[in-house]
Design a protein that fits this description.
This protein has 248 residues and is of the alpha/beta class. The chain is 27% helix and 29% strand. The chain has helices at residues 37-53, 68-77, 92-106, 125-133, 189-195, 234-243; strands at residues 2-6, 9-11, 19-20, 25-26, 33-35, 56-63, 81-86, 110-114, 136-147, 150-157, 160-167, 170-174, 200-203. Helix 2 links the parallel strand 6 (56-63) and strand 7. The chain starts with a strand and ends in a 5-residue tail after the last helix.
Length: 248
Amino acid sequence: MKILVCISHVPDTTSKINFVNGDAEFDTNGVQYVINPNDEFGLTRAIWFQEQQGATVTVVNVGSVDTEPTLRKALAIGANEAIRVNAPATDGFFVAKQLAEVIKAGNYDLVICGKESLDYNGGMVPGMLAGLLGYNFVNSCTELAIDGTTAKASREIDGGKEIISASLPLIVGGQKGLVEEKDLRIPNMRGIMTARTKVLTVLEPVSASVETKSVKFEKPAPKSAVKLFSADDLDGLVNALHNEAKVI
């Protein structure tokens, strides 16, 4: 079984976020980048298939040369090889077009994406890939098992979960539950050294239109000061909730 894991290169959630050029661009100065958490759950599950069922695991990213340390980390975790499409990830459709070409060329049986990246939270790419390729698709996937050419998956739905059976090839939009956080792999020294010799292929992008453009970013408004009321001032509390907060 050939598995492709799509990797997004995202800022660490502890990084301080700022914008430049009139709040039109993300300021990358001093920002530490990591594997997108939803993608890391998928990668860890793919490594399980590698160890238990002899699957080969390839990771892919659409990005410039500065994303290669993230791919090398994925190789250190256990992926067999990596692919980088040499283009900035401008929007979801552009990324999906690039990944679709990689998938067609590699003839992968299973493609695991995170259901969304934690930078822009678009959640578009896995579904677009399925549409472009005509593959079966399971989003918000929390469990995945493969038996021959058949997959059994669970996905979160409102108020419960749905059990799905689908044939390969399959695209999965994964999240926490594919593995738990305690099962995530930390690269050891042997993995880090081995990753240096594993193949990292750089491909030039195919022609694709960019359908969206970020015009401006805006941070959430700062929280207002807390207003305290004494225990015997219920009238004042009710008045504030009604006339200021407008919640009653």
